[in-house]
Design a protein that fits this description.
The complex is a heterodimer. Chain A has 23 helices and no strands. Chain A is an all-alpha fold. Chain B has one helix and no strands. Chain B has one helix at 2-37. The chains are: A mainly alpha, B mainly alpha.
């Protein structure tokens, strides 16, 4: 029987296994290196307060929609849109799935960087006087090293995904998630032991009411909620395919979001007090928004680890936490591609092989050339906002009330319809957040924002981004019927 | 004040997370009891 054949190779999540996997998917590098940077440059406490609102207004409704798509149809991104929303909307699932799949290709590069830096820490490279900026630039300028560590990262992920949902992803996340929390708690406690670190905590949790009035604080908090929780990426959708028939969609959405925020708070309590205590000058740069994710982790923090007693242990803990967070997210991304191929009738084994091969080939370009990485990150990172809109529009096509009454409410212990119904407001948040990013992008290229070539000059311009989206959507339209015809192999849950 | 804010933020985030896990546990217990009955 087809049902048993698939279960042999794939398996199904247990209740707790799914909870761990969903947390692993949500908790990524965005919690550990992006949250501390963004919270610092957006007023600290005020940003945290707004982030809680953003979870309810942006993340939880979107995750619920993903849960419904995956659990009701038991198919991946493309097939679920065809089954639940309608055959003519298959292209929406194509954009939804492919956008995240393209992120898979460069997200593994970040994992490779973290592995490289863990090795540096273990080799005792981080010693006083180390020029961390040169170390980073030399690493980034060496295509061979970047490529090899990327391959190691993808091999690790493919190994876990290859073991199956139950034996690989579930068991892996049961180790990764406690590991992340233990490492972050250790780093937060260690940070608080550094003289002067309490100033960092004070900065992190002090609420300046004037900051609550700043639009950028709200815009950045919503963006953080979108990118950090993974809402609207298609990853929750993919994991929900393998859940039990009575799995609670709303409860799991809340669990993943609050676990994500808890991890982010711990990361903030580890990183900001450390910088405050050891380098107030660097902290000023972070507050001014002059430091990017890479600058914070691989240059700034590495410099601090090199100059503080016991810094090597802190570096090992920090990069290990980053690796576990990135690994648990990258695994979910690869599974997203694997599920789509299985929907087309491919075996689990060949799906894992094909996806790994494609990710290796495409991602190698990003691993070897940082410009490719930056352009992909910009194009498909902002594309995720569009994916969120697609999920919200899908909910409205199917019917917001119908989804609650038929799919969410009957199996939920949280009878809070308002949490789900907020998806009706999603297009409004999207218009504001998306418009803000585009307006920023235009301001980076005054008088030239509409230019595309050379892309190396217009990496973050809106025109190359829209062009790449248009190509993907155009392909989706062209392949709509073919995709709809071929997406017909559902996952059959055992219980 | 910031100490109060810190505890409030941590209690909200970890508290909500713990509450979700607790609800999941209770649901699991209820379903197990129903299975035993039937």
């Amino acid at each position: 029987m087809a049902e048993n054949t698939e279960l042999k190779g794939t398996g199904q999540f247990s209740k707790w296994g799914f909870m761990f996997a969903a947390m692993g998917m949500a908790i990524g590098t965005g919690n550990i290196w992006r949250f501390p940077r963004v919270v610092a440059s957006n007023g600290g406490g005020a940003f945290i307060l707004v982030l809680f609102f953003a979870l309810f207004l942006w993340a939880i409704p979107l995750i619920c929609m993903e849960g419904v798509l995956g659990k009701v149809t038991r198919m991946g991104c493309i097939g679920s849109f065809k089954e639940l929303v309608g055959r003519k909307y298959t292209w929406m699932g194509w954009f939804f799935g492919l956008c995240c799949f393209l992120i898979t290709c460069y997200y593994g590069v970040v994992l490779g960087w973290c592995i490289r830096y863990l090795f540096y820490a273990l080799q005792g490279v981080f010693v006083a006087g180390l020029d961390t900026e040169s170390l980073w630039n030399n690493f980034l300028g060496d295509p061979q090293q970047g490529m090899y560590f990327y391959w190691v990262a993808i091999a690790m992920c493919a190994f876990v995904v290859g073991l199956g949902v139950q034996n690989g992803i579930e068991k892996g996340n049961k180790i990764f998630i406690p590991g992340i929390f233990i490492l972050l708690i250790f780093l937060a406690i260690r940070a608080m032991m550094i003289p002067g670190s309490s100033e960092g905590l004070k900065f992190l949790f002090h609420i300046n009411t004037a900051d609550l009035m700043k639009p950028t604080v709200w815009l950045n908090a919503f963006t953080q909620a979108a990118w950090s929780t993974g809402a609207g990426w298609g990853l929750f959708l993919t994991y929900f395919v393998y859940t039990k028939k009575d799995e609670d969609i709303l409860l799991n959405a809340c669990t993943a979001c609050f676990a994500d925020t808890s991890a982010a708070l711990l990361a903030g309590m580890a990183v900001i007090p450390t910088i405050f205590a050891l380098s107030p000058e660097f902290m000023q740069k972070v507050i001014a928004g002059e430091v990017g994710n890479n600058g914070l982790a691989f240059i700034g923090l590495t410099n601090l680890f090199s100059n503080v007693p016991g810094g090597t242990v802190m570096a090992v803990a920090f990069f290990s936490a980053l690796i576990l967070a990135a690994l648990s997210s990258e695994i979910a991304m690869i599974e997203l591609g694997v599920r789509m191929l299985q929907d087309m009738g491919k075996s689990r084994r060949s799906s894992v092989f094909i996806v790994t091969l494609v990710v290796l080939v495409v991602g190698t370009f990003a691993a070897r050339d940082n410009m490719v990485f930056e352009n992909m990150d910009w194009t498909w990172g902002v594309g995720l906002l569009m994916s969120g809109l697609i999920a919200a529009v899908a909910a409205m096509i199917v019917g917001v009330d119908k989804i609650w009454d038929e799919y969410i409410s009957p199996v939920s212990d949280i009878q809070a319809k308002w949490m789900w119904s907020l998806i009706r407001l999603f297009p409004l948040w999207f218009a504001i957040i998306f418009g803000w990013w585009i307006q920023q992008s235009i301001s980076w290229y005054p008088g030239e924002w509409w230019k595309i070539f050379p892309i190396s000059k217009y990496l973050y311009a809106p025109a190359p981004m829209f062009l790449q989206w248009a190509i993907l959507i155009g392909l989706g339209f062209a392949l709509n019927n073919w995709l709809a015809d071929n997406m017909k192999h559902k996952f059959e849950p055992k219980v | 004040m910031w100490v109060f804010n810190m505890f409030l933020a941590l209690a909200t985030s970890f508290g909500a997370f713990a509450l979700c896990v607790f609800l999941a546990l209770k649901a699991e217990e209820r379903k197990a009891a129903m299975r035993r009955k039937s």
